[in-house]
Amino acid sequence: MRKMYFVAIVALTALAFGANATERPGHAAIASAHKLATQAGFEILAEGGNAFDAAIAVASTLSVVEPQSSGIGGGGFFLLHRARDGKNLMLDARETAPAGVDAARYRKADGTPDRDASLYGPLAAGIPGEPAALVWLAEHYGKLPLAKSLAPAIRIAGEGFQPGAGFLEAIADHRAQIARYPGTRKLLMPNGEVPKAGWTFRNPDLAATLERIAAQGNDGFYKGKTADLILKSVKAEGGDWTAADLAGYKVVERAPLDFAYRGWKIVTAAPPSSGGVALEEMFNVLSGYDLDQLDRPQRLHTIIEAMRRAFRDHNEYLGDPDFVKMPLETLLSPAYAAGLRASILPDKATPSSMLPATVAHDPGMHTTHFSIIDADGNMVATTQTVNTHFGSCLVPPGTGVFLNNEMDDFALVPNAPNAYGLLGSKANAPAPGKRMLSSMTPTFVFSPERVGVIGSPGGSTIITQVFEGILAFMHGDTAAQITATPRYHHQYLPDVVYVEPGAFDATTTSALEAMGYKIAARGHWGFMNVVTWDLRTNKLDAASDPRRDTGLGEVK
Ligand code: DON
Asked: Is the pTM above the cut of 0.90?
């Protein structure tokens, strides 16, 4: 029944909310965290590819030029909109735990978390999903052969490029970890030191690995030479992946979450992302208020309380839908939202300790999001990651592939926060083949007049940044304004509102403090990449987060 209802709603909204076969922008927009990746996407569009081919080019090029953020040794979520039939889907390329996963290996003898095990080396890595996503996209949605769409990444990996300051800082920050692994050391600190500006970074082994994927599809990564090299290195460094772990990896096509808010339709990431569930809960709470009628402190109070409540449920209930039963019907129901609203005090912060469930960490600049709309109105929102900078810092020699450290996104030790200060429950405990919960929230926002494609990195702050970005888009902000607006974040625990300098003026800050909020400044936010489509004028707009200078949002 629920499924029929869902199908009917999707069909109706595809008709009501533009972006269908009769509308096409006639030009394209791409926003990504790196100029070379955006250009690679346009190169593939110029060769006759569609948004899905361009997504392969952007994603694989980001693997090469931003290995600190994402890559074929990691995973991600690809949210797709196919113009031909209005179909929306989420390609889930999240990493999985290997069959030999053993939670005890992430605890020290005294029972406290072993952060080194969950963040560095082979135990930190999940089985990568990104290569299978690229292959799937080419086989099911693209117009061009995979080899063509991978060509820009292969070329750049071989020829090299000059990394910007962020890349070099990431190497400096992780020099000790990088030095532990010969494959990584050779690539990133070829002279035993952190390279200086002007250095050309080449990764010919990654070019060769991408060539094997281009020629053999999944077998080019999950079997044969690449798999052998990965398994050898994982074993040498104390991990225990098997050939079956790699050969058995599968991407999953999932129905995205799809909900309405004040005449808008939001299509967003489904579990194993927690982001869509949190977004829907937050918008359901907001739907009981007229935000435009509230003054700024009251408006922020309402939004922050919605964040607090959504994150409480995030910690408690969410995990891999193939492994855990989640009370989604309840969490996403109007009655539940009404209950949450009733618990919001009019002029006072609710202490998180009063709601029946650490430490905050700076999310830094890793993980990446890109947004694409092509000339036909196909759309892609992808958030992809190796988790923290350079993932596990383990590059199996001969592969050029940075293995992720996504295992840290599991609740490995009960009640111990992960790298983003997130707590988890049994729902997110590790198990063989299970996907770890993610905050990545690639999202489409539709109205009969405007369409937005939005997403961001930022660990747990992804969810609130996307939430604020959607509110700004609904408010009428341009792509550049959406990406630039100063941000704020609350995640239930710790019970603090994190604020980017400039987000709240002094009067607003005092008003919120008087309500009982603890407010703390936080430096790192972003890197949001947004494209929008005005259906009334048929104009596209694109912007890359101004907080870093490597990104490029472009309309062509
Ligand atoms: O999937 C997740 O939620 C995290 N692994 C994402 C990490 C991230 O966004 C780091 N970015 N700054």
From this structure: yes
